[in-house]
Design brief:
The structure holds two protein chains of two kinds. By secondary structure, chain A is of the alpha/beta class. Chain A has helices at about 1-5, 15-25, 40-50, 60-75, 85-100, 125-130, 150-165, 175-180, 220-240, 260-275, 295-300, 320-325, 345-355; strands at about 10, 30, 55, 80, 105-110, 120, 140-145, 170-175, 180-185, 210-215, 245, 255, 280-285, 285-290, 305-310, 330-335. Chain A folds into two domains: about 10-205 and about 230-240, Thiamin diphosphate (ThDP)-binding fold, Pyr/PP domains (Rossmann fold); about 245-355, 3-Layer(aba) Sandwich (Rossmann fold), CATH 3.40.50. In chain B, β5 (about 125) and β6 (about 130) form a beta hairpin. The chains are: A alpha/beta, B alpha/beta. The interface of A and B includes residues 60 and 100 of A. Bound molecules: thiamine diphosphate and iron/sulfur cluster.
Amino acid sequence: MGRLAESKTLMSGNEAIGEGAIRAGCDFYAGYPITPQNELTAYMARRMAEQQRIFIQAESELSAINMVLGAAAAGARAMTSSSSPGISLKQEGISYLAGCQLPCVIVNIMRGGPGLGNIAPSQSDYFQATRGGGHGDYRCIVLAPDSVQEAHDLMMLSFELADRYRNPVILLGDGMLGQMMEPLKLAPFNSLKRGKSKQWALTGCLGRQPNVIKSFYMQEGQLEEFNRALQGKYKRIQMQQQRWEELYISDARVILVAYGTMARITRSVVRRLRQRGERVGFLRPISLWPFPQRAFRRIVERRPRANLLVIEMSYGQMVEDVRLAVEGRLRVEFLGRSGGGIPSQEEITRATARCRRR
Amino acid sequence: MKRIFSHPKALRKVATHYCPGCGHGIVHRLIAEVVDELRIRQRVIAVAPVGCAVVAYHYWDFDGCEAAHGRALAVATGIKRFRPENIVFTYQGDGDLAAIGTAETIHAANRGENLTVIFINNAVYGMTGGQMAPTTLSGQKTSTTPSGRQVSLTGYPLKISELLAQLPAVRYVERVSVHSPQEVMRAKKAIRQAFINQIDNLGFSLVEVLSACPTYWYMSARQAMDWVRDVMSKEFPLGRIR
Ligand SMILES: Cc1ncc(C[n+]2csc(CCOP(=O)(O)OP(=O)(O)O)c2C)c(N)n1
Ligand code: SF4
């Protein structure tokens, strides 16, 4: 315990995300208050000032995401955070960021919907995050941590991937993850020379031709050509960035699939069932887009008679990607609740037993 | 021999897509002249609107950024805060700045962002085919006010410049016009001032330019200039507001 206290600090998910951003070299934060992510905005207000970086409380989420667009265009590592209703407002800006190929990080600490919904944890923005959300043929990289530590670490990765692919990255958590306290091993500060390598950024045209950041292509054929290039980038991301965690797959008859907070609960059910000798496996997508199809293809090959049980804090969103990934070759069952309820360990255990009998 | 007139360096030698008699082209040139005279071409970053001036960044020869309809001042805030050494300006129409972007406009002004705003008031939405703008005059016919703007239903012409002038963090607001050579010279002076203020770190400066849209005023270019002088500038009086 003494050693633990030395090397780790206790932080909430929201704060760990904020500190991850600080250590990843985030230059610019703009946001608008909304529960259950207010601790993150407040944390950034304090820490960005301490680090002499830029924090703005915007007049709306619309404005916040467009401030991020400006800062990103100028070469900053820029981010915003919000929760479901606020993320809906940001969709126009996210579409422009994708169309302008600008790097940025967007944190969504999901709450219940539709509409104003409630402030209970939820996973019902999966479609919005992974399908684009705004208008046009685009994708955001979507990463879903299941612990305070992973939320912190994935923030570092988010900024890296955003810059590498010049693409928005969404960190998708929920109210539970945001509020929960856990011991955290802090990542080292990123030492990159900020903005140096971004030849395309707006800096004033001293010693070079003017740069223009835009998503507007009016001439015949131009937009189609641009969209083809974007799709090529998305293909590359799909090849290179599928991430997941798996447990006990090799002899599993039923494999439980969940992400984020839901995966924590599911993992402990799987461990308990394993202790009782039941052949249950566990698969947790970490990248939701690109969806880890490779993991599912391997299951189809290695466990062709296994059943899958997908568990979500929604009425069935990720389950569609699972079905697409297994292409009808495995049976896929679903258990989900949202709007305040979270599938309990007992419900998961019962649903697992039903899957096994089939 | 002393050269007293030439093509501004900051203006590309390309044909614009603007209609004959449109004010946008005149104001583009004035901005380019001011940028040259202040020797800031290599420091300037323009934020273009969505409106007829959507590709303004292709007409100027310096860095430029797109913004979604109405969001130019949020985008400019992001750029300027990260690169305070650059000179950042927005160029926006009345729909962009005073309808869909009203919140961004008022709050950037209220924060006293050290930005320059060139606000083109042509009393209509040009790009989308001549609909009512917040600045459309009472009785003015547009495609969405076919029998003339009725203020009892659609409100009065919005004087956003006067509204902004109330805010303590706003440094400079002036309304000018480009309907005659004298007015063009005054407009250039105001635009110059708005850029100098930013160079001197004095805060938010806005120049509203009354600008003809002959196409959707359904007039000849000449009639449109006269209409600015005789009608529009009565509703929107010229001069320093703050
Ligand atoms: C979100 C959104 N809504 C509507 C439009 C359509 N639109 C494009 S320009 C414009 C109005 C332009 O009018 P103004 O800002 O006065 O500029 P002008 O064209 O007159 O120079 C509208 C409504 C859009 N592009 N985006
Ligand atoms: S429609 Fe009006 S504002 Fe647009 S280019 Fe033509 S004259 Fe200018």
